[in-house]
Amino acid sequence: MTSRILTVARREVRGYFDQPTAYVLIVAFLGLSLFLAFRTMLASSIASLRPLFDLLPILFAIFVPAATMRSLAEERRNHTLEWLLAQPITEAEMLVGKFLGDWAFVMIALAGTLPTAAGILLASQADPGIVLAQYVGAALLAAQFVAIGLWASSITRNQITAFIVAASLSFALFLIGVPLVQIGLPPVIGGALARLSVLSHFENVARGVVDLRDVLYFASTTALFLVLALTALGRERLSHARAEYKRLRVGAGVVALLVVVLNLLGSHVRGRLDLTADNLYTLSPGTREILGELDDLVQIKLYASSELPPEIQLQLRDVRDLLSDMRRASGGNLVVTDVDPSEDEDAASEASSFGVSPVEFNVLRDDEFQVRRGYYGLAVIYADQHEVTPIIQRTDDLEFQLASQIYGLTTDERPGVAFMSGFGAKGLAEIPGLQQSLAERYDVRTIDIAGDSAPAISRDSTEVLVVAGPSQPLDSMAVRRVRDFIGAGGAALLLLEPAMLNPQSPMAIPVRSGLEPVLADAGLEFTTQLVVDLASSERVSLGRQGLFNVIAPYPLWPIARPASDHPITRGLNSVTLAWAAGFEVTDGSAVVTPLWQTTEAGGVHPMGGTILPDQEWNRPDEELGVHTLAVALSPSDPEAGGAGDEGEGGDRDGEDAGNERGAADAGDERGAADAGDGETPSAAGPRGRMVVVGDATFVEPQFIQSNPGNAIFLANAIDWLAQDEALMSIRAKDRTPPPLVFESDAGSNVLKWGNLVGVPLLFALFGLVRVTGRRRRAEARWGKVVA
Length: 787
What we know:
Elements: H1 2-17, H2 20-44, H3 50-68, H4 73-77, H5 81-85, H6 91-111, H7 114-123, H8 128-154, H9 159-175, H10 179-182, H11 187-196, H12 198-206, E1 209-211, H13 212-237, H14 243-264, E2 272-274, H15 285-292, E3 298-304, H16 310-329, E4 334-339, H17 345-354, E5 359-365, E6 368-374, E7 376-382, E8 385-389, H18 398-410, E9 416-420, H19 434-439, E10 443-447, E11 464-468, H20 476-487, E12 491-495, E13 499-501, E14 508-510, H21 516-522, E15 524-533, E16 537-545, E17 548-562, E18 575-576, E19 581-585, E20 590-597, E21 602-605, E22 628-635, H22 655-664, H23 669-673, E23 690-693, H24 701-706, H25 709-721, H26 728-731, H27 745-786
Parallel strand pairs: 3-4, 9-10, 9-11, 11-12, 12-23
Antiparallel strand pairs: 1-2, 3-7, 5-6, 7-8, 13-14, 15-19, 15-21, 16-17, 17-18, 17-20, 20-22, 22-23
Helix pairs in contact: 1-6, 2-3, 2-27, 3-8, 3-9, 3-12, 6-8, 6-13, 7-27, 8-9, 8-12, 8-13, 11-16, 12-13, 13-14, 15-18
């Protein structure tokens, strides 16, 4: 049986490649798909194949019916179907063989995009697991559309009719999942059609997760249309009055009903394979650790209405999957309750008491938009405390939100994080979202360290000191208090602005923080020039140039890459800095680990030079190289006080050693000022951790909005400094694709034109050789016969 099926499949594939039409289809498919994909990828500088695979359902809805329309319709028209079925082969074997042959042809055409995928993976840090999942999804989608094409080809003798029927049905399965169509349907019908649509299932696989529900959808619908095609073939062979034909029709109807029921009720099916490199859709070790250490019951109540819009219903599936995974990881100490307040007045009252209010959304009724209300929020409850998410707006950071809320509710210890005030430094309120993020786990406050009257920074109440972009030099007493705090084992996050923008002219004015001697003790020097990156930078508007708004790269806003596999940067793809300075590592008392750096196309820009985006940025190759933009510093002697290496904690007790060093410096002016504080400066350098960034502008709203990695990096830095790393692996689940950066235009052109022109050209040349060779071989055979 298998050999007969494979024989038909090989015959079908050869039939494709013996005709010039197949090569025209492949070249057209590759040319159109790669052209549209490269336009998006290169314009956005994002290393992701999503632009290609987002178009695939639409392209396949045309390409696959065009390829399969001849499979059975042509056999009927040429009267070769009867001859084929007269061979020792069943209708089912013939149909499966044709299905495999047609599917193989589509996959060969799709294989023409593999060089693009390989180029993206080689030129960037794109996730190969996501790329693999995207091709798995494409293979499943191709199988479904091939089955639809075979069914359409089985019901007619006309190829054009078969193409129109298959393309119409393929587009219908795509369109019923589009929000524009969904908004005009009642929620119940819209939700059902969304689960039957190809769009949501394919997009779910394309993000990097092979879910059993999506596999069942594609497998069941493929089987359904093959059964329908088999029924269409049996209609001609069997008498309609015979019981065998009636059983065939009843069987096809039962299969169709089972497929619909399976996909409508498929939300209860569990099982998925996370192919992403960082397990982005799997519970993090930090979440499992937090849940595994629960010693009392914690309850999560999900308030979700059944008549939410379909696009939210699809997101709700991810929310319920996450809650189910968390419940299983808790060992029974996490209780998850799913409540519909729209159907229960007591539940609605309870949701309202927690602060979860119904949200409004539009539906299209009677040719006008109407407003509906529904609940979509959750509450985490522990004893008499609770944390609430009134509206679930995103799912990519929901695991972190829930884990941090559970951690905050069940943990009494709250390390202190102090933001330095004065000297023009940024306060906590100027950094969007940080206060809410820190308040759940830290005791956050602002301290004044200026002048003679300010007290020393206490290690008892402060775990991490944040100095965020002072625009004025710290006075000597403030510098001394920072030095003493770090010398006693305290941790510091130093965001240092190298320059201020001149309001009268487009120039950068140098700024000194006064902390340069503290960095020098640790073995770090601030450069006196701004850093540019000619290959990886944010794009800015140059304003209107005639009729158009011109967008161009701005090298003074570099998009930095991770410089090492450090816990702070692990899982992050990039941060965007602005008017930043670099660092040089010298001999010092600390272990310096680079965190962020430019590409090899990094350079420097004079501090007093113009900073306008529309100037000439080219630099000689000999002046380009990698520049470090942020570093982490750890004590060189782990036993001396703070933490030793990047991932391990240390003790907080540093007063004794600090006193000994202070006695040695009794004649020093700095050593005498705070003799009664018990915390004296470290002559041997810092005993606590530090994170130093050559920029503080990156925490401003516009940069955090354009690059979410900025906020994650900032929060990770505080967690690492506080030696509270349980949540870092969760927060670092960055689902944003990495930047697509080329060191030169040559690399970009090779990738683009090599694939956009080279790959289709190879198919065309192969087709030319094969088709003309087939003709020559046929003429030679006929010549021998005639002779």
